[in-house]
Amino acid sequence: MIRIEKFSEKNVEKALALKVSDEQLKFVGTVPEIVESMPATGHKHVVLVGDEVVGFFVIDTVYSENYDFCSEGALGLRAFFIDSRHQGKGYGKSTVAALKPYLQQAYSQYSKIYLTVNCKNRSAYRCYLKYGFTDTDELYRDGAAGPQYIMLMETA
Ligand SMILES: CC(C)(COP(=O)(O)OP(=O)(O)OC[C@H]1O[C@@H](n2cnc3c(N)ncnc32)[C@H](O)[C@@H]1OP(=O)(O)O)[C@@H](O)C(=O)NCCC(=O)NCCS
């Protein structure tokens, strides 16, 4: 039911209109901020249901250059969210579950993907853990909003 597509002219307008609640803003930036600040090595993606853009994420191809815990050649998942009007409908879990086959096909030269998730963000942590990522049992402590769990998914 969900589809993953590269962010492009075709979906930019709908992607820019995506929102999370004020309480969730500390866990993820807004799309305009992300578009503005993300270098070309951060590949922006959208999540679609039919013609509707319901979510967004970035595949960071140089994550290991910025995060010591990330082994060389591994990807990073960043800025993943589902629009607040579409949360709680199963799209978050379907997207996390769809990531592995998507990365195997579109990023086959990489064998794993890391992410960090704020320790206070229980719903996102559970979603990642239940649908494909494992907790490395290490914390990333440099996040602006407090410590974060470091999670990993093998894709090879
Ligand atoms: C985390 C997020 C992506 C989940 O997306 P969603 O579409 O609302 O979630 P789903 O309906 O697919 O539910 C997925 C899983 O999340 C977890 N979850 C969702 N809401 C939850 C809640 N209120 N409490 C605990 N777990 C919850 C559950 O594990 C659920 O799976 P289950 O029903 O099989 O147990 C979404 O809440 C979001 O965008 N949050 C704001 C941005 C954010 O925090 N991003 C993560 C940055 S690291």
How many β strands by DSSP? 7
For the biggest sheet, the summary is: 7 strands, mixed
| Oligomeric state of this protein | single chain
- How many helices? The count is 5
Proportion of strand residues: 25-35%
Order of helices and strands: EHHEEHEHEHEE
Q: Biggest sheet, strands in spatial order?
A: 1-2-3-4-5-7-6
The name CATH uses for the topology is Aminopeptidase
The hetero compounds bound to this protein are: coenzyme A
The class by helix and strand makeup works out as: alpha+beta
The N- to C-terminal Cα distance equals 24 Å
The level of helicity is 25-40%
Number of domains: 1
Named CATH architecture: 3-Layer(aba) Sandwich
CATH class: Alpha Beta
Shape: globular
**Overall pLDDT, averaged?**
96
Radius of gyration over all CA atoms, rounded: 14 Å
- Low-confidence region ranges: none
CATH homolog superfamily: Gcn5-related N-acetyltransferase (GNAT)
In a few lines, what is going on in this structure?
With 156 residues, the chain is of the alpha+beta class. The protein has five helices and seven strands, in the order βααββαβαβαββ.
Structural summary, described in words:
With 156 residues, the chain is α+β, with helices and mostly antiparallel strands. The protein has 5 helices and 7 strands. It has helices at 12-16, 31-37, 63-66, 91-106, 122-130, and strands at 2-6, 42-49, 52-60, 75-82, 112-118, 134-140, 148-154. The longest helix is centred in the middle third of the chain and has 16 residues, at 91-106. Helix content is 26%, strand content 33%. The two termini are 24 Å apart. The protein has a 7-stranded mixed β-sheet. It has a single domain (2-154), classed as Aminopeptidase, CATH 3.40.630.30. The structure holds coenzyme A.
